[in-house]
Amino acid sequence: MYEPIRTKSVHTMAGTADFPHRSREEELDIQLAGHLAALLAVTDELRGLEPSASAELDVAAERLAEQVTRLRGGRPPVRAAVAGGGGGGRGATSAGLHQRAHALAGRALVVAASRADTAGAILAAQRMDVHAAAVATPVTEPALTVG
Q1: Are 48 and 83 in contact (CB under 8 A)?
Q2: Closest by Cα among 102, 99, 97 to 86
Q3: What is the pTM for the complete model shown?
Q4: How far apart are CA 120 and CA 30, in angstroms?
Q5: What angle do CA 136, 139, 32 make, to 5 degrees?
Q6: DSSP for residue 95
Q7: What tens digit of pLDDT does each residue of 70-113 get?
Q8: Buried-most residue among 17, 131, 141, 142 (CB within 10 A)?
Q9: Cα gap 44→140, rounded to integer Å
Q10: Interatomic CA distance for residues 74 and 80, integer angstroms
Q11: Using CA atoms, how far apart are residues 144 and 147, in angstroms rounded to an integer?
């Protein structure tokens, strides 16, 4: 009368699957490394747009790269070459990049706190403070005079 079920039920135990599982901490490591790598990319863009703050941004970029390398088990992040001169290839503004960096640092802070990663949380909080201050006091461009 009824045909027997030929496939496994969706209610079978998860432990019987044939794929590797990651722990919660490994997942958080991956998330944190991703957020910090994205923040590093934005920091590198800012280094090209703001030559006056280059020394501070260089230090921040190195610290971010160290954290990403640590979280990825020794694999360093892929980085773009910094183009000097303030061209900003995609038309990105300094204020817009600082806002994006602030948001990325906030996400990294949440994941680092969830993971109980003190070094990552401190770095993310410091970057949030720097980018919030940069957004609050934007860099003014010299006014053009039409004569």
Answers
A1: yes
A2: 97
A3: 0.74
A4: 13
A5: 60
A6: H
A7: 999 999 888 877 665 544 445 578 889 999 999 999 999 999 99
A8: 131
A9: 21
A10: 19
A11: 10
- Torsion from C-alpha of 25, 27, 29, 30, nearest 10 degrees: 170
Q: What is the DSSP string of 103-119?
A: HHHHHHHHHHHHHT-HH
For residue 2, give the DSSP letter: -
Helices 24-49 & 94-115 angle (0-180, nearest 10): 160
Residue listed under structure tokens 């280094």: 47
pLDDT digits (tens, 9 = 90+) for 26-71: 999 999 999 999 999 999 999 888 877 788 999 999 999 999 999 9
In the predicted model, what is the mean pLDDT of residues 123-128? 94
- DSSP character string of 31-83: HHHHHHHHHHHHHHHHHHH-GGGHHHHHHHHHHHHHHHHHHTTTPPPP-PPPP
Helix 118-136 / helix 54-71 crossing angle, nearest 10 deg: 150
